[in-house]
Prior knowledge:
This protein has 143 residues and is mainly α. The protein has helices spanning 2-23, 26-45, 53-73, 76-97, 104-142.
Amino acid sequence: MYSIWAYLGSAMALVFGALALWRGGPAERSGAVVILTAWFITPFLQKNYDPTIWGVVVDVTAFVLMLGISIWSRRIWSLFATACSFAGVLAHIGAGLALNIGYNSYLTTLMILSGYGVAFSLVGAVIESEVYRRRAQAQASVS
């Protein structure tokens, strides 16, 4: 059952990332590259959905890069993507601290926040980019 949700999330990330690369500005394209790279590198670094040091390194790197994009761009979507990415980093830390409890909360947090949340933030990126683009066009036509 987990694989269905993982494949659906990957398809969503790919579609939304492609949309952000196509219709987004520099911040949206940078964010899409970071998110898609981290998204598709992670499965090669994991074994049986267990947290590995390389998965943590990828997620922490993606979080730091998204934080930089968020500070640089000052866009709402990037703040949401950064927060969801940070939730993924915290899930790795929590899984490392509670080894005997199991991975249900770890996988749920990664799937919902660090997975779907970050993927949906790319939709917000495209919408926000379109709003800024149309405002700039409207101001240019008034001037």
